[in-house]
Structures are given as structure tokens and as C-alpha cells.
Amino acid sequence: MVHASNERRPTLEAVAARAGVSRATVSRVVNGGAGVRGEVRERVRRAVTDLGYVPNSAARSLVTRRTGAVAVVIAEPETRVFADPFFGRQLRGISRELSAADTQLLLLLQETRADHERIGRYLSAGHADGVLMFSLHRDDPLPAMAEASGLPTVYGGRPGWAGAEDALYVDTDNRDGARQAVRHLRARGRRRIAVITGPLDQTSAQDRLDGYRDALAPAAADPRLIADGGFTAQGGERAMAELLAAAPDLDGVFVCSDLMASGALRTLRAHGRRVPEDVGVVGYDDLDPAAWTDPPLTTVRQDVEEMGRLMARLLLRRLATGPGAARDELAPVVTAAKLVVRESG
Amino acid sequence: MVHASNERRPTLEAVAARAGVSRATVSRVVNGGAGVRGEVRERVRRAVTDLGYVPNSAARSLVTRRTGAVAVVIAEPETRVFADPFFGRQLRGISRELSAADTQLLLLLQETRADHERIGRYLSAGHADGVLMFSLHRDDPLPAMAEASGLPTVYGGRPGWAGAEDALYVDTDNRDGARQAVRHLRARGRRRIAVITGPLDQTSAQDRLDGYRDALAPAAADPRLIADGGFTAQGGERAMAELLAAAPDLDGVFVCSDLMASGALRTLRAHGRRVPEDVGVVGYDDLDPAAWTDPPLTTVRQDVEEMGRLMARLLLRRLATGPGAARDELAPVVTAAKLVVRESG
């Protein structure tokens, strides 16, 4: 793809010619005017106004190395970003926080992993001051690209890859949230409790599965009671059908996202299982779909919008202080999860 | 907000020092190597590799004026962008087309109109090669900012503001689509047909209202049969209630988006009106909600994903050819709308 130049934009050269000074002088004036006589400065400023010259921040960022923008990278295809309310809600928190700091949010969308290389190039090219990255999978190349770009980065969700010990991130206590869900089902008398997990190469999914196991101990989890629903509605539908086939006597299910739970409820209805009479269901997230399901979903609340806010705030602080800040000012944040009891379980 | 420098990124100066050459020589090599002796060129390239130096595209774009990225601006708050499937679908088309051309999609999100100025600054700062803009309202300042930035721009939806005669845009034939919808309701024997419009400062909303009026002629539209639903589900719910209060004898309603139609159906149900027995309903868009409503929605199909594709394709062509291309290569595109008959009307 050849991109033509932006032919209508007045150049630095044109300003220099009109003011009768050198390019370097124009550049100095545009970047603050230090070391330029008042009369010359005035002449350059008049030429800038006359021509409607907009200082190219590519040029300015060579001096200040600032763009006023933060890149957001979600390691999922565009389709999922717009189908899963989790992402919209997290972006809302990020957007509000960045907007309050007069910083532009750049959402870098992608289709497939083949697009990752281009994203890495864009990050390395100095068009943003920092990066927020979320929904990463264990072998994603994106964190290495963020590292190579030299841009300060904050992750959404605990990083699971090797060498991420110093990474800044925001997460909820997924393991504890899962424990609360499963203990609740047990307290309501459920004895055969299944789990529908997210993709286990994501730490949030793995942590919730670990919490499920904790809450069942000392009894061990029966492998027939575990199915992967991939964090999508269709995946939840399919995983619930697998569980009913493998363990028809199940009487409870902990579903690791509300979106998967909406799918699981459809499957239970199609199989004639009443919720909560025959099977108790508890979800995870407490996003809009949870209140809309029939019956309304008992779920584990994580404040997704607030997590977005916290990510943005942590990155802005990192950008303001540099890497040398006291460790207690720049540390990962883990928020609490909280069971919300409605009617499904 | 003070953003610190990206302290870990090796600089041009470091490369120059290591290679024992001037900054200007490094810059020339990084940008193609013209006029630099082979042996020197080799030395610089080795230093680049050794240090892991990534040429800052802020620097490179001073020479080439290319970023390999296209900015997408939706003139709606982040909340609406993620709540309305229209935007996700249009972005999918854009994303696929840009991805195929190895061009990065930058979605510039905003919260309020106060953010427009910052978006204007970012566009003027040379971080993208062109702009795709949609969901504009009549007095939006964004088109003037796109113009001032000098970046080639393609609009989604026919521009309604003065001075937009030469603008490039992609649209569907909204007026004809509306005519098809209302003629269908009349052919099914409806005699009191209401309309729920979008915000009338958008040309798509105005064109659909005009098509509704065309199809009722020579009889004039009764103002009690017209209500504004603002292109949201809640707006559709509210507008339907207003219409039922003002014209209880209505027997048909053309709703200018599927999202508003989902709200209108809820109101009709709450008022005990059966669809289609008592009231025939026709929507607009044919996005996912249309097939999920109860009963499934008769609607006017516009291929929203294809519109996104066409927008991206038109902009890429404009970037490749420059503004001087033959007019038949660079012209607005208007696609056809087509009625899809399901059960609601």
C-alpha cells in the first residue's frame, strides 16, 4: 500500500520562506521559542497563523517525545471485542479516565494473530506514550512487542508468561471469587457441581478453575464435571451440553462468565432442566446479561469499568513518574470479587 | 498530564556513537541509505542491530509522511459505540479491509463533544494517513477538523453540512429503503402507519422520514404519527409509548432502526398490542437483533459490514492516487436497500 503525502498541509518550509528565516528557527519557535529574538519570534508566529500551519507532532515528538495518546490493545479479534460486553465496559472505564486527563484513547483493532506484527510496528513507531493491553493468552507475542517498543505498559489481568514478574497489572481476585460461587452452591445443598471454564491459557480462567477446586476440597474434582466454554455464549451452550451428557446427575454449575452462562441456560432449558429447581447456576462478571437472563443470574461481581479506570490511572501515574518511582506508588492492583445472589442459584 | 520520555528505547544518538558517524548519516541509512558509502552503511546497520534500535516513525514520517495507519472517528460516546451493533458491524468491514492492506486501524474513542478538540489535535499531528468518520450530526465540528488536518477523509453516511459537495462518502439509499418499508405495510392493509425516526440532524434519519412521507403521498403524514427515538433501544420504547398515547388507532409502525424496533416491541407488548395481528412493525438495518426479536422482525436490509469495507476501500484508493485522480475512480458510493419480510409486519 503506497500512501500519498498529505498534500494540503502547509509545511515548515513554507512558514520559513514566508517569515524569511531558516527552518531551524521556525522549529525553535514552534517548540517554545527559546533562544529566538522577540521580533523574529513574532514574525514566525504571524507566518504560522497566516498559513494555518499545524506543527506536525511527528516533528514535535522528536523534541518532546510525547504524543498525548495511549494505545489500547485487546488480544482478540474485532468480532469478539464487540460481541462481549466485558470489553465495552472495560473500555468505558479507560475512556473516561483518559478523557479526564486530556489523553487520547487509540484502540488498535485486529483480525487475526497475523496482525500482531503490524501492531508491534505501530507501537514501536512512537505514535503513543504508553500501552494498555488485555485479554492476553499465554503464548501471545504482544507483551514481547510492547517490551521491545520501550513503551510503559499496564496489563489487564495477571500476566501468566515467564519474565513478567515486574509487570504492572490490574486484576480481580478470581480465585477467591470462584470459591465464593462454589461455596454458595454447596450451602444451597448442591452435591454434584460442574464448572464451565474459559480458555485455560488465560490466567483469569485458570485462577477461577483453581478456586472451584479449592471449594470442593478435600473431595477432588471429577474431570467429567469440567468443560471449556471459551468465554463465548455459544461455547457455554456447547459446554453445558457436554456436561449433561457426561454427568447427567449434576445439580449445580459454576459458569466462569455471564456470557457463557446465558448460553448454558439455553441448553438447560432445551434439555428440560429447571433453574434453579433442578440445577443451580452461578455466573461470573455481573455485566448486563446477568440481569436480563431468565431467571436472573446469581453471579460473582467484578467491577469491570473500575478495572479499566484503574488500569488507565496506573499507566498515567507511570508516565508521570517514570520507572524510578517508589514501588508502593507503582504496584499491581487486585480488587475484590463479591457474590451477588439473584434467582438462578 | 506530563508524560515522561520512553527511557528504554535506544536513541539515534546511541546508534551514531556506536557506529562512529553523525546523526545525519544514521538518519540517511535508516531512511533508505541514499548517498551513504556501502562500508559506512554496513557499520550503521550493524549498530542498529546490536542496540535493537527501532527507527522512530515520528522521525521517519518527517521524510516519508506515512504512518501506515488510518484513524476511525465515530461521533458518538463510547457507550453508544458498544451498545449499538451497527457500529461493531461497520468496524468489522473496515477492520477486515484495512487488515488485508496491512494498514493499522486506530479507533479514536470519545466521551463527550469536549473531546473533539483533542481528536482534532491528534489528527493534525500526523499519526495517521487518512480518516474514516461516521455517525455525524449536522453541527458536528469534526468534519472541519478533518479538513483542517489536511488528511484525506471518507464519511459514512451522506454529509449534510454546507460545503460538503466534494466530500467522499458511502451510504445506502435510505429514502428508497423507507419507501419499501411503508409500501409493504400499506400492501398488508395497514391504514394508520406511524414512524419512529432517528435524530433528524443526521441525514440517514431525515432521508428515511422523507421516504416515509413519499410512500404516504398524496395523503399527508399526520404529525401525531411521527416520534423521534434517537436511534437507541430506550428511545424506541419511549417513542412507541408517545405514539400510542397520541394515536391509539395506529395499526402499523415503521421504526428507523432495529435497535429502536426492539424497544418498540417491548412497549407494544406492555400495552397488550399483538404484533403483527394488531400492529404491523417494520425495522431498518437487518442486524442481529432483528432475527432475535419476538416475533422476528420484518426489516430493511443495508449491508453494514460491506459499507465499512467500501469506506476503507475508497480511502485506500484516495491515499494511493492522491486528490488528482479521475473523478470516476473517486466518487461517493450509494448502495441499495432491500426489504426482508419476516413475521412482525
TrEMBL record, chains A, B:
<keyword id="KW-0238">DNA-binding</keyword>
<dbReference type="InterPro" id="IPR010982">
    <property type="entry name" value="Lambda_DNA-bd_dom_sf"/>
</dbReference>
<dbReference type="InterPro" id="IPR000843">
    <property type="entry name" value="HTH_LacI"/>
</dbReference>
<dbReference type="Pfam" id="PF13377">
    <property type="entry name" value="Peripla_BP_3"/>
</dbReference>
<keyword id="KW-0804">Transcription</keyword>
<dbReference type="InterPro" id="IPR028082">
    <property type="entry name" value="Peripla_BP_I"/>
</dbReference>
<protein>
    <submittedName>
        <fullName>Ribose operon repressor</fullName>
    </submittedName>
</protein>
<dbReference type="Pfam" id="PF00356">
    <property type="entry name" value="LacI"/>
</dbReference>
<keyword id="KW-0805">Transcription regulation</keyword>
<dbReference type="InterPro" id="IPR046335">
    <property type="entry name" value="LacI/GalR-like_sensor"/>
</dbReference>
<feature type="domain" description="HTH lacI-type">
    <location>
        <begin position="10"/>
        <end position="64"/>
    </location>
</feature>
